[in-house]
Amino acid sequence: MADLIQIVVIDDNVRSLELLSAALDRDGIQIHTASSPEVGLELVRKLRPRLVITDLVMPRLSGLEVLDRVMMTDPAIDVILMTAHYTTETAVEAIRNGAADYLEKPVQLSLLRDRVNRLLETAQRRQSALNADASRPDVVKFEGLIARSPLMWDIFARLQRVAPHYRSLLINGQTGSGKDLLAQALHRLSGVKGRFVVLNCSAVVETLFESELFGHVRGSFTGADRDKTGLFELADQGTLFLDEIGDMPMSTQAKLLRAVQNQEITRVGSLDCRRVNVRIIAATHKNLPSAIRDKVFREDLYYRLSMVEIVAPSLQERMEDLPLLVRHFVQRFSEEYGKPIHGIAPRAMILLERYTWPGNVRELEHAIGHACMMATGDRIDVPDLPERMVQACKSWLGHPDGIFEMPATSHAEFNLSNDPGGSKLAAHESQLIARALSEAGGNQSQAARRLGIGRDAFRYKLKKYSLERQVDDFGLRN
User: Fold this and answer.
1) pLDDT tens per residue across span 434-459
2) What is the domain extent for residue 68?
3) Does one domain contain both 38 and 105?
4) Is 209:249 a contact under the CB 8 Å cutoff?
5) By C-alpha distance, which of 41, 44, 107 is closest to 76?
């Protein structure tokens, strides 16, 4: 019994309970049903199930109220809401309140099984990560993206939840943080049949914005020598990705808002209104609330686009992913350049860890591409990295040439292919942190400065490598 996955299904329609139970019944799963929300909540409190499936409209308590009470009981329980009165707005509201998914009744049983299996797999992966060695957390592969940082896992889970339901969505994040990759993953997950169409708003001349988005008819303005199809029409039944939406002029924002709200567009120079079915993903590195206060961005457009908002973390916020990303880029560029590059010298990897990455993952990609191009052997070393990065790291260190005093080690000692989990790098990093702490007399702030990392990051690494005792030995807790 203890090993069975518990699922509670709540619906005041007894026939619906029977159908759902039969659809989900398989080895390893135990289904519990309740025809009233009160009985269902009592089962939740008693069993602490992995998953709750509940109808939205029920007597005495609604599905949203059931969701709230389940979240208060145990936020780790996934909840799927079902309703015969589906709207995008209520679906997004439910997901914002913590729902794992939102399905329209009558539920397609094959779709339900697919969604349930995904949620159970995600929950199992999450539990495995909690039980894993903290220095070797699990790697998650998701729609062409890879991560071992919990921050990215949460984003993957959110994308999976909102993908079937959103009509407009905003991705915020620093330049180079991968907003376009998240948008493409969201498009693939949404299951729409149309194409993924991109407009870089920072690269369009202001007078041509309307033509780019909505198209034009021949003769509508000087140079319009033929009809043109706009991006909204090209993205019909698919997704329109508006990159750097913060650079869109105010005059175009009003027309965009009408198109997003009404799903109707009119070509420049035409009186004919055309219906479209387009999902909108907007992305920006700017602070749009500040832009609203400065009167350069429309408040009503912001609220329309940000019904769901995803924040793409900077590389500094997900440094656990650095070894994975480095390995990925080394493999990619070594194949692209036809060079047998299999690893990276520890001192080069330490430099990558010390660098602050203002350009985020895109800057890392370019740096590894440069290094692979420059490398003369079968691994990347410090001289192969961009000079500006090497000089920047030197200027941050108390003894600028210290990184070059470390031996490069042999190829076998640190090889990205043979050490995908980064265990050798972890051992080397642990020794480096212990040495810095010893040289600083146990002063954490000084040790962090010697290593060129922030104090919070240093404390995280102390805990990661169980070095707190060394701090205690100095009698210092600074």
Assistant:
1) 777 777 777 777 777 666 565 656 76
2) 5-131
3) yes
4) yes
5) 44
